[in-house]
Amino acid sequence: MEFIIFGSGSGLPVLDKGLSSIYVEHQGKKLLFDCGEGSSYHLLRHGLCQDEIDAIIISHYHPDHATGLLMLIQMLYLQQRSKRLQVFLPERVADFEAILQFHYTFKQRWPFELHLHPMEELPHIYPQVQIHLTDHLEGYKDIIQELGLPNQMKSWAFRVDNWVYSSDIETTDCLAPILQDLDTLVVDALHPKLEQILKLKRYRIRQIILNHGLSPELDEWLQNNEHGNFIVAEENVPYHI
Fold first, then answer.
1. For 76-118, what is each residue's pLDDT tens digit?
2. Separation of alpha carbons 211 and 231, rounded Å
3. What CATH number is attached to the domain comprising 167?
4. Could you give the number of structural domains in the chain?
5. Contact 11, 63 (CB under 8 A)
6. How far apart are CA 203 and CA 87, in angstroms?
7. What is the residue range of 136's domain?
8. Does the predicted TM-score (pTM) go above 0.85?
């Protein structure tokens, strides 16, 4: 298994980091987890042609994880992709298709088939991928109820073999069911409190890659302690398991 972190930055753009996106190659399949702004550039940078990506998987609908998807779809259309593309969405699939149409991005005009799926279908189509709901969006419950919105607060983590990508989380506790017998964890190191990150030591994970920025408390801890199995994420570097 190989993966490349295209974007390890937080939701606040900075000059030296990309927005959330991770390329994974496993069992002959090439998957893109999240598609922040600039993901198209990274595919070009790594020489991934228009027909190579099998599926795009969006963990949740925050802009830093999803806004590159429209541009990537447009790029594949202009590159004359011919292979079917599977896109797995966290929630509200019909609303996303309406957004495509709003941007005059009509799949009926493309040379390839675009299949939009709810996330719950991902393990049935790609059995090597486990999905797991996290706590990242639970803080929006009150405003969603107040405004009567259809948002479902679905944010997902993923496990492929002995690798986990948490995407955004509020606590590492919410990942507990998928952390056993793990080689590599790519974890949100910005939102959880320091003690939540340090609790990951109990799982004996070979490498814990600190992704999506660092909280000030974690940054200070790393400056004053041995890192052990904690590794700060590097972009555009192939990791192998």
1. 999 999 999 999 999 999 999 999 999 999 999 999 999 999 9
2. 9
3. 3.60.15.10
4. 1
5. yes
6. 32
7. 2-240
8. yes
